Amino acid sequence: MTVSSNDQHRTDPSGVLNLLDDLIAKARAAGADAADAVLFDSASVSLAQRLGKTEKLERSESGDLGLRVFVGKRQAIVSSTDRSTKALDELVERAIAMARVVPEDGFAGIADPEQLARSWPDLDICDSEEPSSETLIERARIAEEAALAVQGVTNSEGADAGWSRSTIAIAASNGFAGTYGVSRQSLSASVIVGTGTGMERDYDYDSKVYGADLRDAAEIGREAGERAVRRLNPRRVKSCKVPVVFDPRVSRGLLGHLTGAISGPSIARGTSFLKDKMGQRIFAPSITIVDDPHVKRGLRSRPFDAEGVEVKRRTLIEDGVLTTWLLDLRSARQLGLQTTGHAARGTSGPPGPAPANVYMAAGKRSRADILAEIKDGFYVTDLMGMGVNGVTGDYSRGAGGFWIENGQIAYPVNEITIAGNLKDMFLNMEAADDLELRFGMDAPTVRIDGMTIAGM
């Protein structure tokens, strides 16, 4: 099913688009040459329990809106949680006064009418059913009990269950008006094994748009317990240079480093290690990476971007070659390009590029086949610290996981650092065939040869 923006405007049961239209009309009447506005209405419930006792059960509701006005090439942004007529009149007055005194920005502005999304698919990203508190409590109970039942587990850090739903509305003086809802349900468990200085911890987690799509609570608990048990009695290893294999739980973080490096503002400022790499091979030829905002029930799916611009599936890396930047309107104008429909924003700041559902396509070989060739190597399951330099690509992070000997997982390892440079890491990367689309940024098991291990 496809929904047009005009249909959305006519079927506005909560009146949020009418509210934004009125706000924009007031801004135009007060002297704004152009304006746009965003609104978020959200509700959430969070539950935490530990050792069978509920430690937290909280519900929160919030509503916030933001107005951006343009006076010539000057822009100002104001936000408010008060939607009374008096408060909105004052909001407009403050925004216009601010816009008249700030410096000009030659690249700022709303979208041209031909850039706007006129229709969009039904992405099924909002579950209308809110789970009861009893349902959340039961999920957490099952997960924690399953984790504690794993032999070797000695304590629990608890289980958490949550739900949230938000309405997002965007309108602008160029004629765009659109609204959609998003929902999330989540469940996690974290447990401890061992005693004294020999304690280790691990967790498992799942998040979905629909509660019915969540993994079984007992499965999440068991996986948390089994992961923790496998970490018992870790060893240290000597410093060396070996192949490093990233578990899917951490390999998706490599996609975050890529999307940050190809973000329009970083390219425009010249502060990215990939600033001169457009059209060049920056990954191994076997690697393809996709950004798709139209994944059904996707955690990062969206029908249009935060500037009302049409969004579509894009291949960021095709056979190892960089094909596009991630652009909003402003960064696109800076670079003399067209927006790619990646704008995201809150209520108190301007738009900026952000990816949608990003995934690395599955490779052709299995995880077992990739491991089988490694005489000595390191299998990463956890990363710590933020030692990544976006300007140079230098990469250095604390890590934990397992040593690989003769193609097999041999024993747990912790207190080491893995290091390299993302330019080399990308070029020496191989993806396994075990991709699962779970979190909105996903990758299969990934092998990278030639990384440095700093150990004993």
TrEMBL record:
Residues 35-99 form the Metalloprotease TldD/E N-terminal domain. GO terms for molecular function: metallopeptidase activity. GO terms for biological process: proteolysis. InterPro entries: Metalloprtase-TldD/E_C, Metalloprtase-TldD/E_cen_dom, Metalloprtase-TldD/E_N, PmbA, TldD/PmbA_N, TldD/PmbA_sf. GO terms for cellular component: cytosol. Residues 127-232 form the Metalloprotease TldD/E central domain. Transmembrane segments: none annotated. Residues 240-455 form the Metalloprotease TldD/E C-terminal domain. Belongs to the peptidase U62 family. This is TldD/PmbA family protein.
